[in-house]
Every structure is written in structure tokens, then in C-alpha cells.
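task queued by scheduler; priority normal; single chain, no ligands, no partner chains; default sampling; output format set to C-alpha cells
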Amino acid sequence: MSQIKQHLIKIKAKIYHAEIAAEREKGSVRLLAVSKNKPLASIVTAYQAGQRLFGESYLQEALQKQQALAAFDISWHFIGPIQSNKTKAIAANFSWVHSVDRLKIAKRLSEQRPKHLPALNICLQVNISNEKTKAGVMLEELPRLIDEVVELPHICLRGVMAIPEPNTEFERQCQPYRELYKTVKALNLATLDTFSFGMSGDLKAAIAEGSTIVRVGTALFGERL
């Protein structure tokens, strides 16, 4: 058995046990394999082991992978920073975008989504720890941005994404996710069903606080040689 397949089994087991610990429904959390900077062979191995959701941060690299793997039934998610000059290609080539942090980008994705494709699923990136070096809308500004984005055509606002400041203590890992989850749920919008929370180091805390998609890269694929 390949190392990637072994890692995939272990990660899915962690997700399953975290769901049980949080009294969540089995299968309520999906794994997004973060494949940026990973070779095609690794993606193929993960795919053959059953993985279908893959996340990319660098547009040109992602487009090359998509072309090479066009025969594969992959759901491609864009999770990196978005520049205005990249929105057209992102809108045309991804099923999901997790990193929309301002109205201008949401509008461009809406306008540039090809009409023959289903609506583009997007998440708004929230700077939940108020870090100056990170992208994302501030929590207090999120409700207004949601109100603006939810009205745009050709995209479907599905939820939020966050990358909190790293912490090793479980309760401190939980706190920012809990605050964001409560803020979104209080808006009572049925389409907001996606919480892109959690990576390898805080997976259990993220699932305890409502995550529906966890993003895992190195723990699945290993370090790039």
C-alpha cells in the first residue's frame, strides 16, 4: 500500500473519530486534499485511493494539472489569494473558490462565470484572528459582505473559510471557529451550509465547532522533495 493511501486512511479515521467526539453525523465532514506544489503522480495516487476533492492555490500550476487530469472526476477547489487578473480563469475552471475576501472579487467571479456551467460555489475568507499578514474580511464586516454577495448571479455563496492564528491548546483552537460559526448561523440563510475550517494541526477542534470541509496537505502527501 502506498504511503499516500496509508495517510488517507489515517486522516479519514481522524475525521471519523472527531465526528463521533463532537456528536456529529458520520460523513458530515469532507476532506479537501491540498495538492498545491504536489506532483501529478501524488494526485493520481490519492484519486485512485478514493479522494475526489483537491485544493490548489497557484493558478497556472492548477490549470496545468487540470489539463493533464481532465479524464478524472475531480472537484477542483481554489484556496489561494485571488488577484483581479486571475478571476476569469478561476471562474471558468473551478467548482469551488474558498478565498473570496472582498466584493470586487465576488463580482468579477459572478460576471466571468461561463453561463453554460453551474453556479460557482464560493466561500468568504474571514480573517478570524485579525492578523495583519493574512487576507480575509474582518468578522464584524462579514454580515454586510454576505448581504452584498448573496445577491450576485452565477455564483452561489455557500459559507466561510478561515485560517486562525496557530495554537496548540484545544480550547484556544476552538474559540475562533466557534465565534465565526455562531455569527454565520445567526444570519439564518439556508444556503450558508459550508464551513471550510481546520487543517492537520487543529482538525479535531474545527470539527467540534462545525467544520464541513477540512483542508489537509502535508499530512496526506508528505513534504515535497
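post-processing summary
- The two ends are 20 Å apart (CA to CA).
- The mean pLDDT is 95.
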